[in-house]
Amino acid sequence: MISRNLGAEFGSAVGILFYLANAVACSMYLIGTTEVLLTYVAPSLPQVGNAEQRTAADMINNFRIYGTLILLLVFAFCAMGVRFVQFFAPISLSCVIMSILAIWAGAFAADYERSPRICMLGDRLIKVERANRANLTELCTKNDTGLLWPFYCKVANGTTTCDPYFVNNKVRLVPAIPGFRGDIITIMLMVFSDNAFPAYMSKDEVVPDHKGNPRIEVVQDIATSFFILLAIYFPSVTGIMTGSNMSGDLKDPQRSIPLGTLAAQISTSFVYLSFVIVFGGTIERPLLWDKCHSLTDDVFDFYGSKFLDMVKAWAIA
């Protein structure tokens, strides 16, 4: 398609870049699929390393093993020809639609009262081990029996000295994901206003311009900026390229390409922008900062169970 419109010279140059881009994108999608599979869908599958203390090197080896297996499966599908790929496309599309609906439903399935709680000291998110989360109400206090006291206070010669930030700020339990239920407009505007503006941080910062204590506070493992976050987010919104990838298989390209491009632009823009509103209006900002999943296991358990209940109810009906 490119060669016929631009000529062989331009077509080959653009085609090589397009091929390399798709090759890199394929590897990225394989890694993402493997991570979701091993972390959420089937964590009981055999994996390299100890389940309680799995390192980054262990996960890299898991990516290599399971990524290769998934790549072979994808290769088998492609080797069966375009007809089989087109037959499989509606199945893939249905999975994508279910995922989109699950995200929208999750925003309304959550509510202020039943949301998992996170422990906050001022505007700093406190790291709580999974074993202690059942007793979070007793541990998230300033008492000497609480979780925070040993990290912010010390006793020397009978005198207790505490960190000034610990003394001057309140410790409180906050709903991690208040959701859209209840007073939807008020809650959404309140949460969305907190998330509306950028707050880029450097490595080991707990909030912008303040270093944190990684033993008790959720800190950033890398420095962030607009372009770093753009590089992370951009691959998730490249689904529109699927149309150009299959342009050579179209029956009437002159009609289908303009119509399909406009329809794809409108539909994908709506979905992606709605996700910005859903995540930005229902999730507390400190939890969005928790990139290393210090606290998100309980949140996933909460939403996973709610979504499964919804699927069961739909199936019974």
Automatic annotation (TrEMBL):
GO terms for cellular component: plasma membrane; synapse. Residues 223-286 form the Amino acid permease/ SLC12A domain. GO terms for biological process: cell volume homeostasis; chemical synaptic transmission; chloride ion homeostasis; potassium ion homeostasis; potassium ion import across plasma membrane. The keyword Isomerase does not apply. The chain crosses the membrane at residues 16-42, 63-82, 88-110, 222-242, 262-283. Pfam families: AA_permease (PF00324). It is a multi-pass membrane protein. InterPro entries: AA-permease/SLC12A_dom (IPR004841), SLC12A_fam (IPR004842). Keywords: Membrane, Transmembrane, Transmembrane helix. GO terms for molecular function: potassium:chloride symporter activity. It is found in: Membrane. This is AA_permease domain-containing protein. It comes from Soboliphyme baturini.
